[in-house]
Design a protein that fits this description.
Two copies of one chain form a homodimer. The first copy, chain A, is mostly helical. The first copy, chain A, contains six helices and two strands; from the N terminus they run ααααββαα. Chain A has one domain: Winged helix-like DNA-binding domain superfamily/Winged helix DNA-binding domain (Arc Repressor Mutant, subunit A), CATH 1.10.10.10. The first copy, chain A, has a two-stranded antiparallel sheet with strand order 1-2. In chain A, helix 1 packs across helix 5, helix 2 packs across helix 4 and helix 2 crosses helix 5. Chain A is globular and about 60 Å long. The first copy, chain A, binds a DNA duplex through helix 4. Chains A, B: It holds the Pfam family MarR_2.
Chain lengths: 174, 174
DNA sequence: ACCTATCGTTTGTCAGACAACCTATCTTCG
DNA sequence: CGAAGATAGGTTGTCTGACAAACGATAGGT
């Protein structure tokens, strides 16, 4: 908690910040593109994220996978079902713990992910087309690091937030 | 289309890009925080965005407002209803066109927005706490410019996208 | 052998996104 | 002026995705 205590800076930023709206805009467009691009991959971008983690990282179990992606366990169930039906991953019983399932990628899964990543990277450059080339990479990098920090600090505790009404006390001349 | 044609660069980016996931992560956290913060404002972040545009920009009609925010018109109907009931904005008949409604902010609405913007800016710094101070501003700025460009180029046309299967031809050794 | 916690799965509920339709009004043309 | 099509705003219904709750199976501890 040493990263410049935000309880202190009132930050009268210039008014047109719109950060939330901007993020939503970019994400929506990303989603549209990628959904279009990966419509053959079982659950589109969802399946893509999951497949990417399965291929690139050594994730012990489904539960760990859910934690890694910060998604609900119940989602994993059917997405993994369909990815497995498509022959991209396999769900093997864990020899150490018969409750758990080990999810491993097939060769076909790796090839598919590689192709999907090419396309997605391409689509991302298109989505960020409003930014000059080198700034896209900066943006991607900042997003990744911000997200990682957020994910690491999972609990949304915030002692600074005194939850009071934004509305003035209604004694206005009305 | 002079901004470095993305049809050409295959862009074998380092594997852990995860841009979509990162954006979703940051946006989700932003949303959680702001929703918590603005729970007294009629539709939370939705009402906040709308109120901000009404206050800061001269937007002729509801339809223009919807276009400005890239949201569905049907959403505006009830959000504006509730913002008006809270005394933050007013919906006046347009003297030039009796079909149209002019949405204007009240003084109370301006005060409320000012307070909300203070809090949101604060929350945003907290959400981006994983980034060093000066990079947060960079990130915000890049997001805003990317979003603006996306919004300007509304039609999602993309001649580069040849919609073919990501999956290999299934001749794998299975 | 029992009791409790955990893994994966299933089911149900709820909110938000979006399309289709409706009414009132404007515009155009005869 | 009057009819026809277009447009602004509003209403309704449908569909999807997120999430909580409950369940069966298994592990770990006593």
């Amino acid at each position: 908690m040493s990263v410049t205590d935000p309880c202190e800076l009132p930050a009268d930023r210039k008014r047109g910040s719109n950060f939330g709206w901007s993020l939503g805009m970019v994400l929506r467009r990303w989603h549209e593109r990628v959904e279009e691009l990966l419509k053959d991959l079982p659950h589109g971008s969802r399946g893509y994220h999951i497949l990417a983690v399965v291929v690139h990282e050594e994730v012990p179990t489904q539960g760990a996978l859910a934690a890694r992606l910060a998604i609900d366990r119940s989602v994993l169930t059917y997405v993994i079902d369909d990815l497995a039906n498509a022959g991209l991953i396999e769900r093997r019983p864990d020899p150490q713990d018969r409750r758990a399932r080990r999810v491993v990628a097939t060769e076909r899964g790796r090839q598919t992910l590689a192709e999907a990543e090419r396309r997605v990277a391409h689509a991302e450059d298109h989505v960020l087309g409003g930014l000059p080339e080198e700034q896209r990479e900066v943006f991607r990098d900042l997003a990744a690091r911000a997200a990682e920090a957020i994910h690491a600090a999972a609990p949304a505790t915030d002692p600074c937030v005194a939850v009071q009404s934004v509305l003035p006390p209604a004694d206005q001349s009305g």
